[in-house]
Design brief:
2 domains, two-stranded antiparallel sheet, 369 residues, mainly alpha, MetI-like fold
């Protein structure tokens, strides 16, 4: 077992390296990088409207303001009609590290990432680690509750469908589940907003945020109710599209086990159907379902929640990544890609090891030799 884990950990190194190379090249090829973003802020933009830029950026803007008197008007706005000083462009490139060749920038970045030194955000000037830690609770909260709700609904429903295979209940529930899964989560979120968040019908739930403005003044139970009041629509939108795959997986897994010889033997011994189902079939059928929990959770947190966080203005990792891409905040984009890629690989290993915890008969050493 230990040798298998070591091999898997060593295999993560080239896998993660490949992920970072591909993402680095794709993002570098995208137009409108940090330097272009800064230039866009300078041209035709008030110098006073650059408060979100980090300190070094403000210094450069101040220097540019002092050396561009011909390009200013009485309101202190730089029109950029005469263009920018090439020396100033070089200063911007040096500030963002773009004065070095592409391979050198990648090697430096990976060297820093190996030490978990993700640097500072280009837009806010704050350490990227602090931003990730600050946003992580929202995404974890969404992922945990969505995963819990999905399994609480899909496992009993899948078992019921397996027991009633081919009946009208099985057919109608399959139609409903597949129909709901065909609706994208973000579309269902918009529908929920229109119906229940003051769109056109009811105004029962808040439109944005994870807590109310008076959160600090609420009692303990008031905070709990307020939290779930805000989380209701996002959780419904995220859960509704996860039913089909897990429900059908549970059903098929149970059907496969129900037709096994040991089930026939248990029934021949006079055991009740409930005892056969939950005393013998359940454990074996749940192997593949339970082992998928880590992968399901990580998928919900780092992929499925992004659009929901954007639609409901939930300040989590999805919204952070979206804003980083829009603002070309490369430090945040690359750091989150590295962190999520590493975490995803580790979760994959945990998912495989979960098989052994559920069924000790599985021997990874035997499989790998």
């Amino acid at each position: 077992m230990l040798a298998y884990i070591v091999r898997r950990l060593l295999l993560m190194i080239p896998t993660l390296f490949g992920i970072m190379v591909i993402n680095f090249l794709i993002i570098q090829a995208a137009p409108g990088g940090p330097v272009e973003q800064m230039i866009a802020k300078i041209r035709g933009t008030s110098i006073a409207a650059t408060e979100r830029v980090s300190g070094s950026g403000n210094d450069l803007l101040s220097a540019r303001q002092q050396s561009a008197d011909k390009g200013q008007t009485g309101g202190g706005v730089y029109r950029g009609s005469q263009g920018l000083d090439p020396q100033f462009i070089k200063q911007l490139e040096r500030m963002y590290g773009f004065d070095k060749p592409l391979p050198e920038r990648f090697v430096m970045m990976m060297g820093n990432f190996l030490r978990f030194d993700f640097g500072n955000s280009y837009t806010s000037g704050r350490p990227v680690v602090d931003l990730i830690i600050e946003k992580l609770p929202v995404s974890i909260s969404l992922g945990l509750w969505t995963t819990l709700l999905t399994y609480l609904v899909c496992i009993p429903l899948g078992v019921a469908k397996a027991v009633r295979d081919g009946t009208p209940f099985d057919i109608w529930t399959s139609m409903v589940v597949i129909g709901l899964s065909a609706i994208p989560g973000f579309m269902f979120a918009i529908l929920l907003i229109v119906l229940f968040a003051g769109g056109t019908v009811f105004h029962w739930f808040p439109l944005r945020g994870i807590t109310s403005e008076n959160w600090d003044g609420l009692s303990f139970f008031g905070k709990i109710l307020d939290y779930f009041w805000h989380m209701t629509l996002p959780l419904i939108a995220m859960t509704i599209g996860s039913f089909a795959a897990l429900t059908m997986l549970t059903k098929n897994s149970f059907l496969e086990q129900i037709n096994q010889q040991y089930v026939t033997t248990a029934r021949a011994k006079g055991l009740t159907e409930r005892r056969v189902l939950y005393g013998h079939v359940f454990r074996n059928a749940m192997l593949i379902v339970i082992s998928g929990i880590p992968a399901t959770l990580i998928g919900i947190i780092f992929t499925g929640a992004m659009l929901i966080e954007i639609i409901f203005s939930l300040d989590g990792l999805g919204l952070l990544g979206y804003e980083a891409v829009i603002n070309r905040d490369y430090q945040v984009v690359f750091a989150t890609t590295y962190a999520f890629g590493l975490l995803g690989l580790l979760i994959g290993l945990i998912g495989d090891l979960t098989y052994m915890l559920v069924d000790p008969r599985i021997d990874f050493e035997a499989r790998s030799t």
